[in-house]
Design goal:
eight-stranded parallel β-barrel, elongated, homodimer
Amino acid sequence: MSTATATKRIYFFGKNEGEINPSMKNILGGKGLNLAIMCHIGVPVPPGFTISTAECISFYDNGRKISAELLAEIRENVAKVEADMGLKFGDSENPLLFSVRSGARVSMPGMMDTILNLGLNDVSVEGLAKKSNNARFAWDSYRRFVHMFSTVVLDLDHHAFEHMIDDLKAAVGAEQDTDLTAENLKTLTQQYLKYVKDQGKSFPTDPYEQLGLAVAAVFTSWHSDRAVKYRQINKIPHDWGTAVNVQAMVFGNMGETSGTGVAFTRNPSTGENVFYGEFLMDAQGEDVVAGIRTPLPIAELERVMPDAYADLVAIYTTLEKHFKDMQDLEFTIQDRKLYLLQTRSGKRTAAAAVKIAVDMVEEGMIDKNEALIRVGADQIDQLLHPMIDPKAKVAVVATGLPASPGAAVGQVVFTAEEAEVWKNEGKKVILVRVETSPEDIGGMNAAEGILTARGGMTSHAAVVARGMGKCCVAGCAGLKISEKNKTLEIGSKVYKEGDYLSLNGSTGEVIDGQVPLISSELTGDFGTIMDWADAVRTIKIRANAETPLDAATALKFGAEGIGLCRTEHMFFEGDRIVAVREMILSETLEGRKKALAKLEPIQKGDFLSLFEIMDGLPVTVRLIDPPLHEFLPHTDEAAQEMATQMGVSLETVQHKVHQLHEFNPMLGHRGCRLGITFPEIIEMQARAIIGAAIDLKKEGKVVIPEIMIPLIGTVAELKMTKTKIVKICDELVKAAGIQLEYTVGTMIEIPRAALTADLIAAEADFFSFGTNDLTQMTFGVSRDDAGSFLPGYVEKGILKDDPFQVLDQEGVGQLIEIAVEKGRKVKPDLKIGICGEHGGEPSSIEFCYRSGFDYVSCSPYRIPIARLAAAQAVLRKKK
Amino acid sequence: MSTATATKRIYFFGKNEGEINPSMKNILGGKGLNLAIMCHIGVPVPPGFTISTAECISFYDNGRKISAELLAEIRENVAKVEADMGLKFGDSENPLLFSVRSGARVSMPGMMDTILNLGLNDVSVEGLAKKSNNARFAWDSYRRFVHMFSTVVLDLDHHAFEHMIDDLKAAVGAEQDTDLTAENLKTLTQQYLKYVKDQGKSFPTDPYEQLGLAVAAVFTSWHSDRAVKYRQINKIPHDWGTAVNVQAMVFGNMGETSGTGVAFTRNPSTGENVFYGEFLMDAQGEDVVAGIRTPLPIAELERVMPDAYADLVAIYTTLEKHFKDMQDLEFTIQDRKLYLLQTRSGKRTAAAAVKIAVDMVEEGMIDKNEALIRVGADQIDQLLHPMIDPKAKVAVVATGLPASPGAAVGQVVFTAEEAEVWKNEGKKVILVRVETSPEDIGGMNAAEGILTARGGMTSHAAVVARGMGKCCVAGCAGLKISEKNKTLEIGSKVYKEGDYLSLNGSTGEVIDGQVPLISSELTGDFGTIMDWADAVRTIKIRANAETPLDAATALKFGAEGIGLCRTEHMFFEGDRIVAVREMILSETLEGRKKALAKLEPIQKGDFLSLFEIMDGLPVTVRLIDPPLHEFLPHTDEAAQEMATQMGVSLETVQHKVHQLHEFNPMLGHRGCRLGITFPEIIEMQARAIIGAAIDLKKEGKVVIPEIMIPLIGTVAELKMTKTKIVKICDELVKAAGIQLEYTVGTMIEIPRAALTADLIAAEADFFSFGTNDLTQMTFGVSRDDAGSFLPGYVEKGILKDDPFQVLDQEGVGQLIEIAVEKGRKVKPDLKIGICGEHGGEPSSIEFCYRSGFDYVSCSPYRIPIARLAAAQAVLRKKK
């Protein structure tokens, strides 16, 4: 977006007057535009004016000075407000006061400065006291103004003012600020002004001088350190600038006929179509949220002040109809007259977002496409997992990475074996590990939740837990875990085996003891949104799944096939690991084949049940991927256990572990490289896959097996591997005397594969982008080790997002685009998908859609997110 | 190259007749073309004809059948040879025999089949006996022909024939084949023919049938397994096909007026311009090389047969003039008549290549450019290192990778410390390690050579050894090393500390005991070649060097600057490692700064001496690159030692080691990522570099420091790092009150950096491609772990070369081209170089030249290679 180019410096808003073209947002900012719109459609708003964002840029171009032209226009607009309000700026009888607020194109909450009650001085404060018949209110407003102006504009230390009020309270025996009398506050204000003078600053008494300085201060705050950093992190251009809203002050604290409140046009938690909010009579805005007095529910306002309530209802209905969205309102009643101070789209929970979107379609307010855009794809994850009762009080003892959403409560155990034992005894457990390995899979499955001290968002624990839809907090650096002593130290607190912990996988919080959980339900509205999404989206959604449970969950959530079945996960269960290790220990081809012969029927059984569950939907089976050492024990104890179990010496096991050790296993002897060195392994897998497919086909069932070869870097690897597999498969099919279609494709997960995709496409039936590894290699970052610097990168703004969560379109995306283009050039109908973690992340899904993918594949629990995100991608492109 | 398109099927060659257009090589093959050329320029060659390569293709297209048209043309050409020779094919009186040999466009030695003495049968053998007056010779020729034809054409088992001759020798009490009489050989031949019949095969007696089948057999051998594999490995297209040369047999074994020999037109070992070779009278070609009779030096021929010798001298002079290169000849004298059977460019040592090239320029035979092309750039490595006396008998006990050329003899030691101790005692040692680590650097420097059991051509040992110009054999898998027992087992042999071993780093051979070494000298001719190369090349050659010794060596070899000074190598020597470890152990910024303050003056001293030695040439200094754990001990003993030395507990050391442990250090917390987490480290380095430059500048010296930031993946990293460095440097320069130019650039070694080079170029003064890491990441291959599969990849033809030795232009090259294009688009004068291992490899240097690089940087000992390769690249592009 280019810098706003304003046609005038200041835009007045008042009764039925204001700029309402949505494109004006760049010039007026979000807050300014909405104020203008409200004025234009007849909503009562205290009049005022918005100084355009372009003036902010001019301010900087002009050496941080307000131009004479702008000052002149400010005067003209102040005069207009005076006329509108029937008051006079800084007057001794009938004073008009202003609020001065920032307002950028997009909301930057708390990043820039605000000044209220501007226009007060020793003269006008008396006018305010007289007019409000409330000297205390007048002096309180004045002392707040002096405090605010002195710190924001005159750059004095905030603490000095705090000290003065504390000293005064001590001197007069006041507990609260509210215990101070008008006289006390007058004294305080005078102390403030003396302090300012003592610091060598001059406090302006001329209201126009106050206003000019305040506007300059707001402009200046656009380049405050925190604002600059916020923009870096959120990729907001620095040259947008901020607008300044100068608005007449109205007061809800002018006695019992005044009041103030905040409200939502619908319930922001549930989405229910009822007016929702709180108010206080004789109060100012900050009192509603301060908690000193208990606000009343908005419905009470009907009883207290029926006319104002009726006005408010009429107004909120108007606003919702105008903005076609649930609104978050701020209002003030001054002497029975209702004013709206702000309106904006209201933040809402996922459940509310879904309900409001569906309701508004039914009410004819928006169409289905708009409804789809309204629900945050990432947000609906909330709806798919149990969560901590938001009303519960929790004691957070540590915070790690929110690795897999949902919540869990259970007793602490320190090994996967214990997790399974305890689970069998009917206990709920939290598995606490320094880090998990594939050996822990049974224990992870048995646990309610998983907590690790090391590893990132895509560590083993995180990936597996998300796949299981199980809560996980990973990389919680504050933990000191002793597996030997069975203790977990967090700060000074020590948890022993059996102690209770709770986890919030959506926030990364580790919570002391047991917290109450609630399970969200997939309501009918949710199903409706999914149906609408399916009607719009054009790319298929598949699941990464290997167990029958995963597959069934995936189907329940609407998967249209399996995009990634990781066969090595099937190598750990029960006796399988014994046969796998026998294969690894063997030094001869015959020995390996003997061990593999034991695995083959088991693998075949795996595929039989997977194919049956998926019932005619395509299933992409990836051949063995991890380096063989992942199947060997990692500790001396485990090595001894394995030696005993296999009837070999400890030295034999240790020698093999040593022999297979790798410095960088991520870049080691794995993927298709294994099959090239040991073809017998993948040949066994090919027989198991096609054997299972043949059995089902003979029963008249539909099976669509897709064999996927991992870690291809050169077309020669693919050709050699594919030739071996096709030979075996064709022989089996021929021997069975049936017709069976199957395809053989490849993962694109090595940069070189993407770069030579034209050569590779000639040998591949499909491409599936393995964006986890592709990201690791393209960035040169190991996701298992990135914890030591990657969080700092995101914090410092070097990276906008963790590239393992959100696909790096700028870098990794280029390789994907190169590969798609080169692949389709050679094979125009090449099927293309993604099976990395990014397949379930909305912005990454949008990238896949734009790049011409046929499908995305993600963990079962993210399928609804992917369905919605895929629809939103279509709608956004149309825009 | 496209498939040859022949205009006729067969090309006759005979006296003054033959096709001599060099473009005919595609059709005639190398051997066929040279035979034709010899005929054309009047060299006596037995006449014959070449069947074109296109016929080989037709043969396959035709279902492996010789077409009737080809057979007819063969008959016509046989008739022509008969006329020329005055003999008749397979005649009982005056028999003409043929040799049938393959001959492809490029030599594929031993890959395809040959048949000699074709045309013999029970009738013509008698004619041969009569005409030669040598029945034994005739029957010996016949039995050889039957044996050869039966195995090559009739596909019978070679061993059956060996058994029959062995049985016969035993029966008649013959020691050698030569002890068999004519009668014995006749019996044997008859046994052979019976055996063929018993196997159900029919042995053709018709000479034309023999010839047709032999030609078909040679065509068929083009697709033999070994030939196909050879072509895969050497990337020779399968559709080239082979030609077949059918040539009249002449015999050197027809008594004392006949003979045969091989000769080189110049000495192939020294290059000396003297006729060089051997001959035997009354002998066949194979007798010369078989070693049963000792051949005579070629000069003796002048005495034995002055006329033939005079003819030969005239001919070799003619041939050398024609081909303008040293020739390797085969000749036969049949009854005083000299025939040339083959001529080709002779293989030669590096020394000979240099001398011949320079001599031929002086003789006016070739120009300087041609001379430069004639010397193999990779070959001259031989000239720069000591080597094993080629006359010595050596006992090779194991073979590893030829990781760093040269040779070494010494006593075995097992630790770096011992290597240094023994060296100080005046002993020469071979350092034997499972693998080396940066801690071993002192010991490696002290050793004559390094032998490791693990690691590839770019392992730590290999890279460091090459940098030092020190002999290294790496990844020698057969070794069993016990550091504890101080033993090295190779097979059944056990070497203890102090036992002697020799290494040949150019072949990877490990040799028992002490072998005599000779040191090659850089002759004047070598200098001449280098001067000519420098005049032609356009890219600069720099060195990877950090020590004064490296830098001095680099200068001696002609380096024009330092392209890579690895500062971390400077962190290991002496007390430095203590300060480095103190820095790592510190948990506070102050602690780290305190430790770094100790390092700073030492680093500054390093740069002072480096800048002084390089005396005004540019020096690129790379900031710290390896992960911090590389500076920590790797064993418990070393950890205890460090704890004692630093006065901390063993647990503290172990905890830090554990804390910094990485799963994939290659993709971990290193390079610029360290400087972002711990800016104080690179700030210290910046102060040391610029501080040293300022000191020299003040003395009036010229210094060109170039600061290089490693492992950049995003422009934000570069910008943040550069900003910190520039601030410090500018402050120092300003404080010194002098003018100092320095540049800040980046390595391009992460795929993402190459892909986003346009963004990165905006912040970089130069790019230096780190092709070691770039190759690792682009391939997804860790060079430290690749030993388990990469050698198999090269063997199976999946990769033509080890991509860590020869730049992968197809994959990694694409990223380089993308980066150069994007970088120069933003900054047209961006300086671009390479500092990976590939910077010293000829084909990679050619790629860099074609891609528009400004310089290549390589280890000091490869600089002459790089100078020559850079010149050759220019010359090849011109062609």
